């Protein structure tokens, strides 16, 4: 189970990237499937060439920034539909990733990676690694919280809510869109670089279907913790990534075929979308958190009714 939590925390970085485009910008970005592998491919290739692992990891993240920028340019300057722009970039990245790697799989088991200190000290698979990964993902979360509270971040949120309105105030929505796509795919590629070093190899197929994992993490997290503020939403995304990995862990533990995991993921997303709408979570009032902005579009994403005992007492306290 510790390994599932570790992977959940690492994939939380990817989920935060998906959250930026899917919830904040309201953009269907499929570049994720390609940029995740690109980050892994760049980091693994540089490590095998003797580049220090931290620099290789940052280079992997930078490759995602470039991929996201390309998608943004296709969408804003090329006037290509957002969904198609992401698909085009994703397909192009498949060939680019093969060029970077030189072959379909790059092993890293005997190389010095950012995971080597943890592995040599026996921390992988235990509380030590969980603590390290938690600190990493929380630092990224707080950085995103801060950025989205700046003028540029507020402009990005406004672009996702109503681009025509914010454009009338003189904001360059093309710039905010490109910036968000670049940051999102940068985080996704960073996750790919870290996961490749964690599992000891980079593979050309490791990003296939990853967008569904990201969406599942975002939707599950916001179904469990449907807060309206950015800080709560980003925390919910991380929790969703951990819950997703735990569900996969338990699904494998009870003997399900690994080939059925995509079906399990789809079932999780459907359940996370439907259960709140059917009022299931209303029976769990302690999970409802109000205040601020929300990214959840379901009818239960609204703030809890003031008649609920918990919120009445909270309002009285204020």
UniProtKB/TrEMBL annotation:
Keywords: Cell membrane, Membrane, Transmembrane, Transmembrane helix
CDD domains the record matches: TM_PBP1_branched-chain-AA_like
Species of the source: Microterricola viridarii
GO molecular function, one term: transmembrane transporter activity
Compartments where found: Cell membrane
Region annotation (Disordered) ranges: 297-318
Topology class, membrane: Multi-pass membrane protein
Comp. bias (Low complexity): 297-310
Pfam families the UniProt entry points to: BPD_transp_2
Cellular component GO terms, alphabetical: plasma membrane
Protein name, entry field: ABC transporter permease
Keyword rRNA-binding: no
InterPro entries from the UniProt entry: ABC_transp_permease
Transmembrane segment boundaries: 7-25, 55-75, 82-102, 122-144, 177-198, 204-225, 232-255, 261-280
Main location: membrane
Highest taxon listed in the record's lineage: Bacteria
């Amino acid at each position: 189970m510790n390994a599932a939590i570790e992977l959940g925390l690492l994939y939380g970085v990817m989920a935060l990237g998906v959250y930026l485009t899917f919830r904040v910008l309201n953009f269907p970005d499929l570049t994720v499937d390609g940029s995740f592998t690109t980050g892994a491919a760049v980091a693994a290739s540089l490590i095998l060439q003797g580049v220090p692992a931290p620099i290789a990891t940052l280079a992997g993240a930078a490759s995602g920034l470039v991929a996201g920028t390309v998608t943004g340019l296709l969408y804003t300057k090329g006037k290509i539909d957002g969904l198609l722009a992401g698909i085009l970039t994703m397909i192009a990245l498949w060939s680019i990733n093969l060029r970077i790697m030189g072959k379909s799989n790059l092993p890293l088991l005997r190389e010095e990676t950012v995971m080597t200190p943890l592995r040599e000290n026996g921390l992988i698979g235990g509380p030590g690694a969980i603590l390290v990964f938690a600190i990493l993902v929380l630092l990224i979360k707080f950085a995103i919280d801060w950025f989205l509270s700046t003028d540029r971040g507020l402009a990005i949120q406004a672009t996702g809510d109503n681009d025509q309105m914010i454009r009338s105030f003189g904001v360059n929505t093309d710039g905010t869109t490109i910036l968000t796509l670049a940051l999102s795919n940068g985080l996704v590629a960073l996750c790919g670089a870290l996961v490749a070093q964690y599992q000891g190899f980079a593979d050309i197929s490791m990003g296939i279907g990853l967008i569904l994992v990201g969406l599942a993490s975002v939707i599950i997290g916001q179904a469990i913790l449907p807060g309206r503020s950015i800080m709560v939403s980003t925390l919910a995304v991380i929790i969703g990534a951990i819950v997703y990995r735990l569900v996969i862990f338990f699904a494998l533990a009870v003997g399900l075929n690994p080939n059925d995991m995509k079906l399990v993921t789809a079932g999780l997303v459907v359940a996370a979308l439907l259960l709140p709408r059917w009022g299931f979570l209303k029976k769990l009032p302690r999970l409802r958190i109000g205040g601020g902005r929300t990214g959840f579009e379901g009818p239960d994403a609204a703030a809890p009714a003031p008649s609920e005992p918990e919120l009445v007492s909270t309002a009285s306290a204020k």
